[in-house]
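tl;dr need the bound structure. longer version: we got a ligand (protoporphyrin IX containing FE) that a collaborator sent over and nobodys looked at where it sits. i said id run it. heres the input, straight from their email, havent touched it
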Amino acid sequence: MTIPIPLKESLFRITGDTVEGWDSFLETFYNTFFASSPEVAAKFKRTKLKHQRLLLRRSLESILKMAWSTEIPIGLDEIAERHDRNNLDIRPYLYELWEESLIQTVSRVDPYFDEEVELSWRIALEPGIKFMIDHYRAS
Ligand code: HEM
């Protein structure tokens, strides 16, 4: 699994690879995502606050894993099923908000954010998001 250099460097600048760095990144992302639409907050209504952060970290990790490997990561099938029409019912436009919130967060917290960094993030997120949306449409 090889992480593209601009993305790897961006992630490191943001989190410093420390627990505190990750926490603060996730908090900013979480606030941005929740403010993006009342539907986002509504979907997480029943989720405990502490659990939400963990979920965000897990969702980010699973989606990045997909970008860095040539296979569908173990577990992504189940995650996609959990989000489909018959379960959490996460409509495709919510993934757009998810991606835009993440890019907005990175632009705020990575001091070296530029077009190349943005593109490296978007390219990494695309396969996983497409997988989730395709699964939703087929459900
Ligand atoms: C970008 C891709 C996404 C990935 C990879 C992802 C991943 C995950 C994972 C791993 C879980 C935990 C599943 C479990 O173990 O129970 C989860 C739960 C959840 N996700 Fe996502 N997610 C994504 C996008 C979204 C979006 C756009 C929304 C829209 C609001 C959303 C809403 C939720 C909700 C409501 C839960 C359940 C929380 C609970 O258990 O109370 N997710 N997601």
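gonna send this back to them w/ a short note. Residues 115-138 form the longest helix (24 residues).
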